[in-house]
Amino acid sequence: MNIFDNIxxxxxxxxxxxxxxxxxxxxxxxxxxxxxKSPRPVVIVQYAMHAREHxxxxxxxxxxxxxxxxxxxxxVYFVPMVNPDGVKIALNKKPLYKANGRGVDLNVNFDARWGxxxxxxxxxxxxxxxxxxxxxxxxxxxxxxxxLKVSPDATVSYHCKGEEIYWEFFQKGWRRVRDxxxxxxxxxxxxxxxxxxxxxxxxYKDWCVQALKIPAxxxxxxNDDLIHPLGKECLKDICEKNENVIDCLIGVLDKYGNKxxxxxxxxxxxxxKNRRSADRRGNRKRRKNYCxxx
Length: 294
Ligand SMILES: [Zn+2]
Fold this sequence. Notes:
Number of helices: 10
Bound molecules: zinc ion
Strand order of the largest sheet: 1-2-4-3-5-8-6-7
CATH architecture of the largest domain: 3-Layer(aba) Sandwich
């Protein structure tokens, strides 16, 4: 079975909330599967946004199974393959292909300092093309809209390779401390290094940090000595190193509790009167959430 059949088979047999967040440029469904142990914290984990990194879709199925059987708290929305058109190209024609079916690199197509990344290119290609405008692609739109609907407390994006964790995108103050702290916890459970990517913009993680003000992480699996595309022989090691990522993240988010809600709330706050009334609404909502959790 290829990875498309694996996902479809898994999806068909999955006994829980599941659905489609949208369709790719070539009209392939982009599936999600939700595992709900408690209402909060809410996390989105997404995989295979870059075509040649299809090994991460296998990791998705492993992590869904594991969290389903051993997870104790939280709600996790898994999106095992954001870029099905690109993965098809990478599997059948161009093994090193990264973009979607229309030659746009989805992880530079989000509205977060769009077009300001060092490696960005402005013409259609196998990698790094930013698109005609932010959210020009159906896949990035689908993930954006799903994220806004679900309103997660944090997100994780799986990529490869390098065994590194990225967390930074111009956060300031306590949010910076919080996000770095969580990245360090994830580093402890995976053994991966926490790294900065100062010249990278327009990614899903960047947009989550900038627009939603939540902690968001890119985890690069697979040793840097490996060669793209990573084969299934790498999967066992990747799964082992990432088996505690979701539980760890939920545990830390639980500790931050209301702090995350405050940060989520800031994004909807305006200045002056609107801000104050939004604050009051937010306070009521937070109290309600807090009561619901205790
Ligand atoms: Zn990638």
